[in-house]
Write a structure and sequence with these properties.
heterodimer, A: mainly alpha, 4 helices, 60% helix, elongated, B: globular, Vacuolar ATPase assembly protein VMA22 (chain A), Vma22/CCDC115 (chain A), unfolded protein binding (chain A)
């Protein structure tokens, strides 16, 4: 009985030991980029979940404040938006990075004379209960998470563009 | 006194005890916490002493609708007792309404200072705090005019402290204005109850002293880190509580919760309020909750004695707390965050 043997072509480019070293490097880079893209997707989903958790917690804290004050409407709602002008304590700016532009939060110090007011006191008055202070911390953390989300999305878009360009380049060779 | 009391107010006391017996028990709260939607909550509530309070509601079930209907029921019960009362119970019942009037006035002052529409503000007011001149407030264009022209003829006028700066009311924090009015109200109510004498004086002075201490400690803690001076904080502390003047002076100048706790530790019962608070990092169980639990316990104990007006005050307080608990449970269900649904304030009626 004879077995059919496929002819062995030493120049077959599908054989790993016969592939072009430059293409090999390109494919490794593509693999790295794809892995990076999946990591970014995972990070994005985790951040989305955290932001949802923080927002939900803050909503529940608001319900708790209403329970304490025995009112569905608290005076703070009658005061918003504030008639007295004030300056934002938190600014979001864009900065350059290795792969593109990223968002960065700048927090300015509280200075009532220059109009930089503490947000929780500006909204809820001078006598702020504990749960509103905790809600304020949740909110600030939420802000950090959202900016981080935006940066990851930008990096993800940039990575996808790199992948597409690299694929096009490899297909052309 | 008991014979005279029964002749005048026996019927109303019996009625109030009946209302209190119809309040939600532990088993009713368990039923509510197991509901999966707001429709289930409404059906469960209708199975209790509340009855068909949602009968006429055709709108989508939401927390606001539930809260509105519960509030209307409380208003009905209060109005019935008030309209069938004779003096001095009538005045006593009016005193129960004054905090709501103060809250409504604070809301209107806050809105006027920020040029909000009066129609929108009036819709946000609590119905128990409505008074005849509330509609006339619309003519006031600023808060100073509000006090001088409109509120001067209302029951709230006597609670306005003479040293409150009317001309700078626009820049004064509305919470500070409310604290001043509330202090004056509490001290006036305390004096009124003391004059009534008998069981009423004994029961009400105890409840109001606790309320005064609670206000003092809460204001002291909430003012930490603010720019309110020690002298201004002291002006907001009611003086009719169990805490002596030396404790009030000490707390007015403290900017640390631990030091306030040390002052409270000297007086039996108040230091325990601060225990284990730092373990709850989510802000669900705070000092305010501890005080609400103690208040519930004291109000239930009021019903152990007869022939006094304290049961009317305690019933309204307990009913308000019950409404808040139901609203809290509804909020947890509406937001699908049922892991915190058991954080309502228990009322030890069983």
């Amino acid at each position: 009985m004879s077995q059919t043997v496929e002819p062995c072509d030493e120049s077959d480019p599908r054989r790993e030991s016969r592939s072009n070293p430059e293409d090999e490097d390109g494919r490794c880079t593509l693999d790295g980029l794809l892995l990076h893209m999946f990591h970014l997707l995972e990070d994005l989903e985790l951040l989305h979940t955290q932001v949802n958790k923080e927002s939900s917690r803050a909503q529940l804290l608001l319900a708790r404040v209403r329970l304490h004050q025995s009112a569905l409407r608290i005076p703070a709602e009658a005061q918003l938006p504030r008639g007295r002008p004030y300056k934002a304590l938190t600014r979001v700016v864009e900065e350059r990075s290795s792969w593109g532009k990223v968002f960065k939060i700048i927090r300015l110090p509280v200075n009532p004379i220059l109009g930089y007011l503490r947000p929780v006191r500006n909204i809820f008055g001078s006598l702020v209960p504990d749960n509103l202070r905790i809600a304020n911390r949740h909110w600030e953390h939420c802000l950090d998470l959202i900016v981080e989300c935006a940066n990851i999305k930008r990096e993800l878009q940039s990575t996808i563009i790199f992948i597409e360009k690299l694929r096009y380049f490899l297909n052309q060779r | 006194m008991s014979m005279m009391f029964n002749a005048e107010w026996g019927y109303l006391e019996a009625l109030t005890r009946g209302f209190k017996n119809g309040m939600l028990k532990h088993s009713d709260y368990l039923n509510l916490t197991q509901c999966e939607s707001l429709e289930d909550v409404m059906i469960s509530i209708q199975g209790t002493d509340y009855g068909l309070i949602f009968g006429g509601e055709k709108s989508e079930p939401c927390v606001e609708v539930i809260e509105q209907c519960l509030r209307d029921r409380l208003l009905q019960q209060y109005s019935y007792i008030r309209s069938h009362s004779t003096e001095p119970l009538t005045t006593f019942m009016e005193f129960i309404r004054y905090p709501f009037m103060i809250d409504n006035v604070a809301l209107l002052v806050a809105g006027l200072n920020n040029r909000r529409s009066m129609k929108r503000l009036l819709r946000m007011c609590h119905p128990l705090g409505e008074f005849d001149q509330l509609g006339a407030i619309e003519v006031a264009t600023n808060s100073a005019e509000l006090f001088d022209a409109v509120l001067i003829d209302t029951p709230i006028a006597r609670f306005v402290p003479p040293d409150l700066p009317m001309e700078s009311l626009r820049y004064l924090d509305v919470e500070i204005v409310r604290a001043h009015l509330y202090r004056s109200y509490l001290e006036t109510f305390y004096d009124y109850c003391s004059q009534l004498g008998g069981n009423t004086a004994g029961v009400m002075t105890n409840l109001l002293s606790f309320e005064a201490d609670r206000r003092t400690i809460t204001i002291a803690v909430n003012a930490i880190g603010s720019d309110i001076s020690a002298k201004d904080r002291l002006k907001m502390f009611p003086t009719c509580g169990y805490l002596p003047k030396i404790a009030l002076d000490a707390m007015s100048s403290l900017n640390d919760a631990e030091k306030i706790r040390d002052v409270c530790n000297v007086f039996d019962g108040y230091g325990k309020m601060f225990d284990n608070l730092e373990r709850d990092t989510d802000g669900m169980i705070t000092l305010e909750d501890r005080f609400l639990m103690m208040e519930a316990k004291k109000n239930v104990q009021t019903f152990l004695q007869q022939y006094h007006f304290g049961i009317f005050y305690s019933f309204i307080k307990l009913k308000l707390l019950e409404c808040r608990n139901i609203v809290w449970i509804s909020e947890c269900i509406a937001q699908r965050q049922t892991d915190r649904i058991y954080a309502y304030i228990p009322i030890p009626l069983d």
